[in-house]
């Protein structure tokens, strides 16, 4: 028995061909590299202007050149979304015995977490494959289109992969391969220049306004235009109103003597004279007590140690007593996420919108807590291969929801199955549940139900284990 046959029996997808999609091939197909670059630079002008305004209102403003750091950050972040976003990023492709797999990472529109997508296309999921060679589209790479006559998926093929070899490999798997000479408009429509032009004009106005505001606030007091706040030196202490010389009371004014009109230099301050005999020694008012000893009549505020939780405001309301334990949360909507905030974004959906009829799952651990490490949807009976434990619906049933036991991780799930009706909808009145998959905590859990619409995939966030989980409904 060969290793390939052994791997197939164990459920692993055996690889026949593999490659990395050409860098920025979707942008090259749209031929809008410069408009996207201009738009990214226009977006970078927004943080540049904000930094200029913040610098200008500072008492000691930094040099405006430091605001270029904001421009670099904003332009780089916008460039990642425009050039490595969900609609433009490439990935790693494998042609296997069982189907085609593509894994890719992308920067979402709100780049909180790095997006991750894994697409699995069994050969019977698409009706035909159209191979468009690079010579036909004027590119150094070829393009593979997979379609089920309703949806089209594009895959970039580098020049290192022979189109003839790729076509033979797919044909040997029973795929109908056709040669194409053009691409659908949805893959070649460029970003309009007017959008980039308007954004660039707005960015230029913002930068000019920010520089003008910075100049008015910081240069107005040094001969520039405007009257910004100028630091003033503190006023000198007033001079003591005392004569530099004092005149002796016994100076003779004889008009011609050596001592005539002579003034003596200032003498040091004299000690206080003793009280006259007819005045008691303590007749002077008592000196005022030191300022620290004066009592104001207000209550003294006790000091509290740093971060001790003791309020320093005597008029602050007392902390409220702990209330009753809240009831379990209401069932969430099917598209909502249940779980924690960690991990990267992922989604696994059926390209042909087939309903989920089961799952493959595995249990892992993170931070000393057990949680689900794998939950892969199964769309075909008898064709599911891969690692993990398989849980399938009974004949005539499909997955209609999940009962999720989650804290900051998805600890366990319970699958809800419902009967499929003739029109493809589900009957919630005829349903049953599986055992708990994973490591349940004993909590009631939160239910995600689809009602009567079939489920065609799942989405959520995950790292080493699954952090959050939600459902993808068939919107047709």
Describe what is shown at a glance.
The protein has 476 residues and is α+β, with helices and mostly antiparallel strands. Helices cover 20% and strands 29% of the residues.
Protein model, in words:
The protein has 476 residues and is an alpha+beta fold. Among the domains are: 14-187, Roll (PH-domain like); 338-473, Aligned Prism (Vitelline Membrane Outer Layer Protein I, subunit A). The chain is built from 7 helices and 21 strands. It has helices spanning 3-10, 25-30, 33-56, 68-83, 134-137, 163-172, 193-219; strands spanning 15-20, 92-96, 99-106, 115-122, 128-132, 142-147, 152-157, 177-179, 245-246, 264-265, 338-339, 344-349, 358-366, 369-378, 389-392, 397-406, 410-420, 426-438, 446-449, 455-462, 466-473. The strands form 6 sheets. Strands 1-2-3-4 form a 4-stranded antiparallel beta sheet, covered by helices on one side. The protein has a 4-stranded mixed beta sheet with strand order 7-6-5-8. α3 (33-56) runs antiparallel to α4 (68-83) and α3 (33-56) packs parallel to α7. The model is unreliable at 221-233, 238-267 and 288-331 (pLDDT under 50).
